[in-house]
Design goal:
With about 110 residues, the chain is an all-alpha fold. It has one domain. Helices cover about 70% and strands about 0% of the residues. The protein is built from four helices and no strands.
């Protein structure tokens, strides 16, 4: 996963597009687990999106990123939508994991393996 804010905003759009493809199941996740993949990947991607947002905000505060610039529009549009999607998918992954833990416990309690 990249660090920092690339010079070219198009690189961030490409990065987010790659994450979207994984979250929507169009590409394989970097984690090979049917239960942890969604939660772990969505949480990692969400953290990266927050990092990008923080860096853009810092650039705005310091005057390096102007209102109406590509990075400004990225933060207020595409990045905001991505953060919302990743947050919901991280929550969904957490619920799936909780459900699997409960099912596993039920199987153990009933003597199934």
């Amino acid at each position: 996963m990249p660090q920092g804010l690339p010079e070219d905003p198009a690189d961030v759009f490409d990065e987010l597009e790659g994450y979207i493809q994984v979250l929507l199941g169009h590409a394989d996740p970097p984690v090979d687990s049917p239960y942890l993949a969604l939660q772990e990947v969505a949480t990692a991607y969400l953290s990266r999106a927050y990092e990008i947002s923080i860096l853009i905000n810092r650039g705005e505060t310091e005057g390096r990123i102007k209102r109406g610039s590509t990075y400004y529009l990225l933060r207020t549009r595409s990045l905001r939508d991505f953060i919302e999607m990743a947050r919901k998918l991280a929550d969904l992954g957490s619920r799936r994991l909780s459900q699997e833990v409960l099912l596993t416990q039920q199987r153990r309690d009933s003597g199934e393996h």
